[in-house]
Amino acid sequence: MSKESNSVVSARAKKLGIDVVQGTGLKTKIEVLKSWLDAKGLKPEDILFMGNDLNDLDCMALDSFSVSPASVCTQVKNIADKILFRNGGCGAVRECLEFVAATLGQNF
Prior knowledge:
The protein has 2 domains: 1-42, no CATH class; 43-108, 3-Layer(aba) Sandwich (Rossmann fold). The protein has 5 helices and 3 strands. The protein is globular. By secondary structure, it is mostly helical.
């Protein structure tokens, strides 16, 4: 989810077969997340949410497991269940996936 539209993100999400919601008409992230959870039949505790800015705090405060890159503001770090070592745009997503895989006992 992002209020910024990015064609590269759209293309990558399509290639990976994952949902992406972006653009200036985006509702609040919490509304989008709750709607997505309902549509998928999921509960907040079923997901991991990675946030990196103040507009992610509501989503991170749900019962989901929340993660943040190293390069975020104090408010986000204070609410995250796990703070990664890598900064956003510098391998944080991969680090997060490796953490999940290791937690599940899988190789990545």
